Queue: 2 jobs
Job 1
Amino acid sequence: MTPLDSKLLTREILLSLWKVHILHHAAEHPVIGQWVLSELRRHGYDISPGTLYPLLKRMERNGWLRSDAAGGDRSRRRRYYNLTTRGATVLAVLREAVAELHHEVVEEAAVPRAARPLRLTPPSVSKAPAKKKNRAGRRRSPPAKG
Ligand SMILES: [Zn+2]
């Protein structure tokens, strides 16, 4: 077994999960970076400010969050991130995706395979007809060797 490449895991997958967390919490109340950091740590993610702040900026550029600076003098001013309408739409899509993912990856996986209801048409098969033609076409003309 190769050791876990945590940087790769973070870059490829966890970063996206953090965004789901952030959208979820911003839907409940405006959030500041420091709060997000401690909340993600509570969930077991050790994320640095150097990772979080650019991520918040990207989410803002995508139109999912809108930030406002608030507070006393300039040095103490904090940036509050609010969920936008577009962010709420993204969150709604993600809630469904996470529920579906959880159902299969967590709930179904907890049931022994033999006890699971037989699935006659797995998603990959039901989508097959449209792609089949191309695949078959490719198979019929293998690259010439010699
Ligand atoms: Zn959370």
Job 2
Amino acid sequence: MPRHADRKQHTREYATRNGLTYQRAEAQLRARRADPEHDRVRRYVLSGEVAAILAGEGLRGVAQVEPADAWLARRTPRYECDVCHREGDARIEDTTLGLVMAAYDPDISPVTGMISSRRQHAACGGCWVHWAYNVEIPQGPTFLSLPAIAEPDLAAELSVEVHPILLPDGEGEQQPALMTTVQVTKDAGAGAAAWLSQLELMLREAGFGTLDDPGEAEGWSVRVVEHYPASYTAQWVAVRATPARDGVAPDHVYLGAWSPSWEWLAAVGRSRHILLIVGPVSVAGEVPDPPDPGNVEALWELDEEGALLAAQVPFELDDMSDRVPRPERPE
Ligand SMILES: [Zn+2]
């Protein structure tokens, strides 16, 4: 066999053995040939947690995980120690790893990803993992683009806000609901009423009914997060129009910080479903004023006019107080 065919075959075998693409295997083998010491065994000392992460255990939404040995072998053996800042060499000194990981969250971080990694002399410190949750949660209204059904190039901009409300159920009990108010902020010259009518069509198609006779909206759900492990936004809510799936964030009608009252949280308790109210939509070509969420009479009036849509949707109260970030790496 000619020499280059031999080498190609070798590269293919190496790629298969280590779960690499051909190009990556080729790059690794080229690096080894350029550095005769490259093949010396790396002296990584991995903790159970770090080894598990490198093996892909518990990682969500990650399509493919490179085998840990291959990942470690691909890195230059020399490094600057993260603790003493002197040079280290994983070929001749025991070396530990620190990983900064983006923690999984179905709404804002649907992939568990490695943000960065550090190395240090094992003598200077052990392995560590830091789970980063500090994603900025938006404050205030969510702005949505609503494309025209007939002309997808044409779109309106909607401003969406959410209000936790309690509705008397007639038996002296308070039923928790989520009022989602919608306003057209850019109508692309078509007038707000036309867009609100289109929104109504889409919501009815999704399964929304009236306040009196709510529908079941397929794929929609509400997730309320308490004690989110980022210091500045501990409470937020996500109103989803599509299901949460690993690797893909849902379409959000609303995602943002909020602070419901304790009465509302107590009323919602361990409910598995919640009444989601959306409106106002247009009535006979007119755009009603957004309701005062505290005024239940006004809500019923709007409902009688046909300006509100409602659906029972799955509800999740996600208390994350047990998931505080692990301690920062040792100093
Ligand atoms: Zn060191």
